[in-house]
Amino acid sequence: MSREKTDFWVGLFVLLGAVALVFLALRAGNLSSFSFAPTYSLVAKFDNIGGLKVRAPVKSAGVVVGRVAAIEFDDQDFRASVRLDIEQGYEFPADSSAKILTSGLLGEQYVGLEPGGDDRNFAAGDEIRYTQSAIVLENLISQFLYGMADRQGSAPAQGAPGGQGQAPAR
Amino acid sequence: MRPYDAIARLGAAVRSRITSLGVFTRFFFQLLARSGIAVSRPRLVSQQVHFVGNHSLLIIAVSGMFVGFVLGLQGYYTLNRYGAEESLGLLVALSLTRELGPVVTALLFAGRAGTSLTAEIGLMKAGEQLSAMEVMAVDPLRRVLVPRFWAGVIAMPVLAAVFSMVGILGGWAVGVPLIGIDPGSFWSQMQDGVDVWNDVANGVIKSVVFGVTVTLIALYQGWYARPTPEGVSRATTRTVVSGSLAILGLDFVLTALMFGNG
What we know:
The complex is a heterodimer.
Chain A: H1 3-28, E1 39-46, E2 57-60, E3 63-74, E4 79-87, E5 97-102, E6 109-114, E7 127-128, E8 130-132, H2 137-158
Chain B: H1 2-33, H2 36-40, H3 42-52, H4 57-81, H5 88-126, H6 129-135, H7 140-179, H8 183-193, H9 196-223, H10 229-259
Helix pairs in contact in B: 3-7, 4-5, 4-7, 5-7, 5-8, 5-9, 5-10, 7-9, 9-10
């Protein structure tokens, strides 16, 4: 085969590989959800970030408005400091709140932004003051058990009239 | 005397294995050291990419298509039991990009391109072409082996990507037109769950590592083959066998490294 033809077929081969890679990255993977739009940063501090990972989505009303850029530990107030990159077009009132939510029942965690009612909007670099941490299953279970034990402990005292001179419930 | 002989033979066998591993490593570094020719004479590499890559394209694409079909069918039957058949796209894409794409392509590559490389080098050795080159002060390692090495390293990721793409399309073909899964959920679940860096890129890294391994083994077996017809045939067999074992072993190590800690 002449050199020109070989070069052509090899070029076509490499091109096919590039097309396959692009297909895998865009159509099969999640690269198309990366936006190259300009962003501004906000910081949110959480007591517990649960399973939140870098590049997790930031959603408001269910629509992706940004990404988690970095997660660090602040050793001044012992909370997690999460930096969020929000797309330039979206402005949020300065008293908006950030929650860590789970998509579906067992899905990955993301940051939900709920708009507040303030007139002013966040400026770049502002801190989101109102945050709610991720739900940690163990804490939930211990709360539930504590609540159950509490209710059982006070149930006999409720049926007594007046409540004077009664023996304290065990 | 019999136990003594057996132990002595065992010792000699272990030593010879370790020695060949050393020869193999030295061979690898010799190829790397002479790799300048891949940059100064890229046409040699490009011709070998045609030989090794283009000619393997048909078997890789057809195999990818059938693997995709089977993944679609088997995946559907199993997922249907749990009412999760919408996730078929995710299943097919993850299986292919993470594991089947690099591994099956490497196995097929070892069988098709690896054996042809070994046979070619072995026959050049048997026909004394390599010695003739040395007599003409042309370094056969540089002129013959280095372009083939880099051609294998370039061709493998390309072939693995083509395999994965064709496989995903094959899974789609079985899932959506044939079985009737909703195409929207097929693609959206896949796009949601397949991460470009953790899944696709790791698959590409694996295919590069496999490419280096398989091509190196093929060239090594050809270079050190006994220059007889029987020697060449044994060398090609060893290429496939040790190449396949190396691929599967490396796949385990790479998977543990990449996906082990989530």
